[in-house]
UniProtKB/TrEMBL annotation:
<dbReference type="Pfam" id="PF00005">
    <property type="entry name" value="ABC_tran"/>
</dbReference>
<dbReference type="InterPro" id="IPR050095">
    <property type="entry name" value="ECF_ABC_transporter_ATP-bd"/>
</dbReference>
<dbReference type="GO" id="GO:0016887">
    <property type="term" value="F:ATP hydrolysis activity"/>
</dbReference>
<dbReference type="InterPro" id="IPR003439">
    <property type="entry name" value="ABC_transporter-like_ATP-bd"/>
</dbReference>
<dbReference type="GO" id="GO:0006824">
    <property type="term" value="P:cobalt ion transport"/>
</dbReference>
<dbReference type="GO" id="GO:0043190">
    <property type="term" value="C:ATP-binding cassette (ABC) transporter complex"/>
</dbReference>
<dbReference type="InterPro" id="IPR017871">
    <property type="entry name" value="ABC_transporter-like_CS"/>
</dbReference>
<keyword id="KW-0067">ATP-binding</keyword>
<comment type="function">
    <text>Part of an ABC transporter complex. Responsible for energy coupling to the transport system.</text>
</comment>
<protein>
    <recommendedName>
        <fullName>ABC transporter ATP-binding protein</fullName>
    </recommendedName>
</protein>
<dbReference type="GO" id="GO:0042626">
    <property type="term" value="F:ATPase-coupled transmembrane transporter activity"/>
</dbReference>
<dbReference type="InterPro" id="IPR027417">
    <property type="entry name" value="P-loop_NTPase"/>
</dbReference>
<keyword id="KW-0472">Membrane</keyword>
<dbReference type="GO" id="GO:0005524">
    <property type="term" value="F:ATP binding"/>
</dbReference>
<comment type="similarity">
    <text>Belongs to the ABC transporter superfamily.</text>
</comment>
<dbReference type="InterPro" id="IPR015856">
    <property type="entry name" value="ABC_transpr_CbiO/EcfA_su"/>
</dbReference>
<keyword id="KW-1003">Cell membrane</keyword>
Length: 247
C-alpha cells in the first residue's frame, strides 16, 4: 500500500501542567480520503491537529506527512503540505484585499508574477470567490470569509486540508455551498467537527478520539448508527435527525 499522507504512530503528548492530552494515537490517512475527527470537548482533537504541522511535538511517537517526519528541520515544507483552516476565518484574513490574503502564503514561498497570480486565482475559483478578489475581506459575509480562508490554504497546494468546525456559524445555504466546494476539491481532507450530519455528508470515514486515544475508526454511517458507541463518547445526532438505511 502507498505511503499514508498522514501517519501518526504512538503519539503521546502532555502539556507543561502535566495534563496528558494524547495517550499513544495511531492514525493513518491515505491520499484522497475524507475523514471526520469526532469526539467530545476535551478529547484531544485540537491537540492532535496541532501536531500535524509541528505547532506541538509529541513526547512519544512520530508524525509524518507523505513520509516526511514532522520535525523542526522540516517545518517549512510540512506547513506547505498541511493546510489548516481555523474555525474563525478572521484568524486567517488580515490583508487589505481578498487577493492579497490568498497571495500571502505563496508569496512567502517565493512565487512572483504570473505564477503567483495564477495560483491565487485558481484557489479563488475553487471556492467560488474569484469575483471578489479585490474586495476587502471585512466587507464579505461570514460564509464568504470562510471560503476565502479555505482559498488561502489551497493556494499553498497542500497535500492534506484540515478544517476546524467548518460549518459553525454558517446559515443553511452557506453550509450547503461549503459542503459542495469541499467535496469537489482534489485533496485529502480531515474535518474536525461536532456537526455529525456534516461529517456524514462529507466524510465516508470517521475517527472518534476520546480521552486522548482512538476509540473508533470506521465508516461514518456505521459509527453514527452505533447508539452504544455514540452514547459512551457523549456524541449525539441532532434531535429528530434520522439516519437513513441507504448504503
Amino acid at each position: 500500500m502507498s505511503t499514508p499522507v498522514l501517519d501518526l504512530q504512538g503519539v503521546a503528548f502532555a502539556y507543561p501542567d502535566g495534563h496528558q492530552a494524547l495517550h499513544g494515537v495511531d492514525l493513518h490517512v491515505h491520499q484522497g480520503e475524507r475523514v471526520a475527527l469526532l469526539g467530545p470537548n476535551g478529547a484531544g482533537k485540537t491537540t492532535l491537529v496541532l501536531h500535524l504541522n509541528g505547532i506541538l511535538s509529541p513526547g512519544l511517537g512520530t508524525v509524518s506527512i507523505s513520509g516526511l517526519p514532522v520535525t523542526k528541520d522540516n517545518l517549512l515544507e510540512v506547513r506547505r503540505r498541511v493546510g489548516i483552516v481555523f474555525q474563525d476565518p478572521d484568524d486567517q484574513l488580515f490583508m487589505g484585499s481578498v487577493r492579497e490574503d490568498v497571495a500571502f502564503g505563496p508569496r512567502n514561498l517565493g512565487l512572483r508574477g504570473q505564477e503567483l497570480d495564477r495560483r491565487v486565482m485558481d484557489a479563488l475559483e475553487a471556492v467560488g470567490m474569484a469575483a471578489y478578489a479585490d474586495r476587502p475581506p471585512h466587507h464579505l459575509s461570514y460564509g464568504q470569509r470562510r471560503r476565502v480562508a479555505v482559498a488561502t490554504v489551497l493556494a499553498m497546494q497542500p497535500e492534506i486540508l484540515v478544517l476546524d468546525e467548518p460549518s459553525s456559524n454558517l446559515d443553511p445555504a452557506s453550509r450547503r455551498e461549503l459542503a459542495e466546494i469541499l467535496t469537489s476539491l482534489d485533496v485529502t481532507l480531515m474535518l474536525v467537527t461536532h456537526d455529525l450530519p456534516y461529517a456524514l455528508e462529507l466524510c465516508p470515514r470517521s475517527v472518534i478520539l476520546s480521552d486522548g486515544v482512538v476509540a473508533a475508526d470506521g465508516p461514518t454511517r456505521d459509527i453514527l448508527g452505533d447508539e452504544q458507541l455514540m452514547a459512551s463518547h457523549r456524541l449525539e445526532l441532532p434531535f429528530g435527525f434520522v439516519l437513513s438505511s441507504r448504503a
